[in-house]
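Backbone geometry:

***
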Amino acid sequence: MRRLRRTDSLRALVRETRLHLDDVVMPLFACPGNRVVRPLEGLPAIAQRSVDELVRELDECATLGVSAVLLFGIPAEKDESGSGAYDEDGVVQQALRELRRRFPELLLLTDVCLCEYTSHGHCGVVVGDEVGNDETLELLARTAISHVEAGADAVCPSDMMDGRVGALRAALDDAGLEATPIVAYSAKYASAFYGPFREAADSTPSFGDRRGYQMDAANLREALRECELDVAEGADVLMVKPALPNLDVIRAVRERFDLPLAAYNVSGEYAMVKAAAARGWLDERQAALESLTAIKRAGADIIISYWTKELAGWL
């Protein structure tokens, strides 16, 4: 076996899994204001940016070859119903219009959820002391439509409300937006690995947690049921989140379904490597490349990762 490991060229010749920048999506955080770049302690090299600064960042990223981004919004104000999510002049909608104008070839995906916009931090409207699943669906649909009308190429519902893919598909079709793909966060687990993201999105729940609507980390068969439901409701792409603790789930979904499969290399996975590299405990580039390759090897076609910009330079 050593004969084919002897040189870099031989190893490259027989390499089974390859990373390509076209398969990677860069998350971005849009916030109000002008000339705002707000670094995030838990996500080194990532920041909340105003629309003008997003343009500057993407000028550089486009030059490096980044071709797809996933937009999250940080509103100026939050309320009980998360109205900033579906405001026609919301921060994501503003960003979409400007980015669409400046970067016509850039693939613009948007997160469709209410957690960044609600005063209580949950992914849907609260009814009594619980998140109201059915009451949330209409607001998610309004959010998706507003994103596409502002310039989004695809919408990515991450809320984990039951039936939301069907609700979005019906609403988009009724609005004449039937060509819009839905990238469904189908198997999204309640996870400790989201910690730094909650700082970035200011979306920590003010009471309780999200275990009533996000998945139990112990369950695999449930993930396949979630994917099956999303396929039936009209999803175009399935997603597993977080990626690294769920490589077995990625593999199982890949083997069961023929749809394109995405995996989210989430904030905690990124932050752990960054923190260890800062202490000199490991090589960040090698650890990042190993992690992303493992996600691809497990079966993901698309990887959402905070390393996208650095990966562009590495590749």
